[in-house]
Amino acid sequence: MNLLILTTGGTIDKVYFDASSQYEVGTSTVPAVFEEAGVTLPWRLEPLMRKDSLELDDNDRAAIRKVCEGAAESHILITHGTDSMAVTAEALVGIAGKTIVLTGALAPARFRTTDAIFNLGLALGAVQSLTPGVYLAMNGTIFPAGKVRKNYQAGRFERTDTP
Protein backbone atom coordinates (compact mmCIF):
# COMPACT_ATOMS: atom_id res chain seq x y z
CA MET A 1 0.00 0.00 0.00
CA ASN A 2 1.20 3.49 -0.89
CA LEU A 3 -0.13 6.47 1.01
CA LEU A 4 -0.74 10.01 -0.21
CA ILE A 5 -0.58 12.74 2.41
CA LEU A 6 -2.22 16.03 1.48
CA THR A 7 -1.61 19.10 3.61
CA THR A 8 -4.03 22.01 3.62
CA GLY A 9 -2.81 24.03 6.60
CA GLY A 10 -4.53 24.46 9.92
CA THR A 11 -3.27 24.55 13.48
CA ILE A 12 -1.33 21.30 13.11
CA ASP A 13 1.28 23.13 11.01
CA LYS A 14 1.12 26.57 12.62
CA VAL A 15 4.24 28.43 13.71
CA TYR A 16 4.32 31.26 16.24
CA PHE A 17 6.15 34.42 15.20
CA ASP A 18 7.30 36.49 18.18
CA ALA A 19 7.96 39.57 16.08
CA SER A 20 4.36 39.78 14.93
CA SER A 21 2.80 38.02 17.96
CA GLN A 22 0.73 35.80 15.71
CA TYR A 23 0.50 32.32 14.26
CA GLU A 24 0.96 31.48 10.61
CA VAL A 25 0.74 28.16 8.83
CA GLY A 26 4.25 26.84 8.19
CA THR A 27 5.65 23.82 6.39
CA SER A 28 4.21 20.40 7.10
CA THR A 29 5.24 18.66 10.30
CA VAL A 30 4.26 15.23 8.95
CA PRO A 31 7.73 14.25 7.64
CA ALA A 32 9.37 14.97 11.01
CA VAL A 33 6.64 13.18 12.97
CA PHE A 34 6.79 10.11 10.70
CA GLU A 35 10.60 10.02 10.83
CA GLU A 36 10.63 10.27 14.62
CA ALA A 37 7.99 7.52 14.84
CA GLY A 38 9.93 5.21 12.50
CA VAL A 39 7.15 5.00 9.90
CA THR A 40 8.30 2.69 7.08
CA LEU A 41 5.11 2.62 5.02
CA PRO A 42 5.73 4.16 1.59
CA TRP A 43 4.16 7.62 1.47
CA ARG A 44 4.18 10.73 -0.66
CA LEU A 45 3.56 14.27 0.60
CA GLU A 46 1.69 16.79 -1.53
CA PRO A 47 1.24 20.24 0.04
CA LEU A 48 -1.96 21.73 -1.42
CA MET A 49 -2.34 24.95 0.54
CA ARG A 50 -1.36 26.68 3.77
CA LYS A 51 -4.62 28.08 5.07
CA ASP A 52 -6.42 28.31 8.35
CA SER A 53 -9.50 26.15 7.84
CA LEU A 54 -11.78 29.15 8.43
CA GLU A 55 -10.30 30.58 5.21
CA LEU A 56 -11.11 27.47 3.13
CA ASP A 57 -13.97 27.87 0.69
CA ASP A 58 -15.87 25.70 -1.78
CA ASN A 59 -13.21 26.26 -4.46
CA ASP A 60 -10.54 24.94 -2.07
CA ARG A 61 -12.70 21.91 -1.24
CA ALA A 62 -13.23 21.26 -4.95
CA ALA A 63 -9.46 21.39 -5.48
CA ILE A 64 -8.90 18.91 -2.62
CA ARG A 65 -11.55 16.60 -4.08
CA LYS A 66 -10.00 16.80 -7.56
CA VAL A 67 -6.57 15.77 -6.21
CA CYS A 68 -8.12 12.89 -4.26
CA GLU A 69 -10.06 11.67 -7.30
CA GLY A 70 -6.98 11.84 -9.53
CA ALA A 71 -4.51 10.33 -7.09
CA ALA A 72 -2.89 7.03 -8.01
CA GLU A 73 -3.01 6.10 -4.31
CA SER A 74 -6.17 4.58 -2.88
CA HIS A 75 -5.26 5.60 0.69
CA ILE A 76 -5.15 9.32 1.49
CA LEU A 77 -4.43 11.12 4.75
CA ILE A 78 -5.27 14.83 4.84
CA THR A 79 -4.04 17.27 7.47
CA HIS A 80 -6.58 20.03 7.93
CA GLY A 81 -7.63 22.75 10.32
CA THR A 82 -10.23 21.64 12.83
CA ASP A 83 -12.75 24.45 12.39
CA SER A 84 -14.01 23.29 8.99
CA MET A 85 -12.61 19.75 8.78
CA ALA A 86 -16.06 18.18 8.99
CA VAL A 87 -17.28 20.34 6.08
CA THR A 88 -14.35 19.29 3.90
CA ALA A 89 -14.90 15.64 4.81
CA GLU A 90 -18.51 15.87 3.64
CA ALA A 91 -17.32 17.47 0.37
CA LEU A 92 -15.19 14.37 -0.28
CA VAL A 93 -17.91 11.77 0.26
CA GLY A 94 -18.59 9.56 -2.74
CA ILE A 95 -15.09 9.28 -4.17
CA ALA A 96 -15.05 5.66 -5.26
CA GLY A 97 -12.31 3.26 -4.21
CA LYS A 98 -10.53 5.66 -1.84
CA THR A 99 -10.02 5.53 1.90
CA ILE A 100 -9.63 9.14 3.02
CA VAL A 101 -8.88 10.17 6.60
CA LEU A 102 -8.70 13.78 7.73
CA THR A 103 -6.93 14.81 10.91
CA GLY A 104 -5.65 17.94 12.57
CA ALA A 105 -4.81 19.34 15.96
CA LEU A 106 -6.08 21.76 18.55
CA ALA A 107 -2.47 22.78 19.33
CA PRO A 108 0.40 23.09 16.81
CA ALA A 109 2.58 19.99 16.33
CA ARG A 110 5.61 22.13 17.09
CA PHE A 111 4.37 22.71 20.65
CA ARG A 112 5.62 20.58 23.52
CA THR A 113 2.04 19.83 24.57
CA THR A 114 -0.03 18.93 21.51
CA ASP A 115 -2.56 16.42 20.29
CA ALA A 116 -1.05 16.52 16.77
CA ILE A 117 1.29 13.53 17.08
CA PHE A 118 -1.42 11.36 18.64
CA ASN A 119 -3.93 12.38 15.96
CA LEU A 120 -1.47 11.70 13.13
CA GLY A 121 -0.78 8.24 14.54
CA LEU A 122 -4.49 7.53 14.85
CA ALA A 123 -5.08 8.71 11.28
CA LEU A 124 -2.19 6.63 9.94
CA GLY A 125 -3.60 3.49 11.55
CA ALA A 126 -7.13 4.34 10.43
CA VAL A 127 -6.25 4.94 6.78
CA GLN A 128 -4.59 1.52 6.64
CA SER A 129 -7.43 -0.40 8.24
CA LEU A 130 -10.72 1.21 7.22
CA THR A 131 -12.83 0.37 4.20
CA PRO A 132 -13.16 2.92 1.42
CA GLY A 133 -14.96 6.07 2.56
CA VAL A 134 -14.24 9.37 4.27
CA TYR A 135 -13.43 9.67 7.96
CA LEU A 136 -12.11 12.05 10.61
CA ALA A 137 -9.52 10.85 13.13
CA MET A 138 -9.52 13.06 16.22
CA ASN A 139 -9.41 12.66 19.98
CA GLY A 140 -8.80 8.90 19.82
CA THR A 141 -11.95 8.29 17.79
CA ILE A 142 -12.72 7.61 14.14
CA PHE A 143 -15.79 9.48 12.90
CA PRO A 144 -17.58 8.88 9.59
CA ALA A 145 -17.94 11.98 7.43
CA GLY A 146 -21.34 13.60 7.85
CA LYS A 147 -21.76 12.39 11.41
CA VAL A 148 -19.31 14.56 13.32
CA ARG A 149 -18.95 18.08 14.64
CA LYS A 150 -16.43 20.06 16.60
CA ASN A 151 -17.60 20.84 20.13
CA TYR A 152 -15.86 24.16 20.76
CA GLN A 153 -16.88 24.31 24.41
CA ALA A 154 -15.47 20.87 25.25
CA GLY A 155 -12.48 21.19 22.89
CA ARG A 156 -13.14 17.89 21.11
CA PHE A 157 -15.02 16.24 18.26
CA GLU A 158 -18.21 14.27 18.76
CA ARG A 159 -20.68 12.22 16.76
CA THR A 160 -23.85 13.97 15.66
CA ASP A 161 -25.98 10.86 15.29
CA THR A 162 -26.00 9.78 18.95
CA PRO A 163 -28.38 10.97 21.67
From TrEMBL:
Substrate binds at residues 53, 82-83. GO terms for molecular function: asparaginase activity. PROSITE patterns: ASN_GLN_ASE_3. The active site is at 11 (o-isoaspartyl threonine intermediate). SUPFAM superfamilies: Glutaminase/Asparaginase. Signal peptide: none annotated. This is Asparaginase. Residues 3-151 form the L-asparaginase N-terminal domain. It comes from Luteolibacter pohnpeiensis. It comes from the Bacteria.
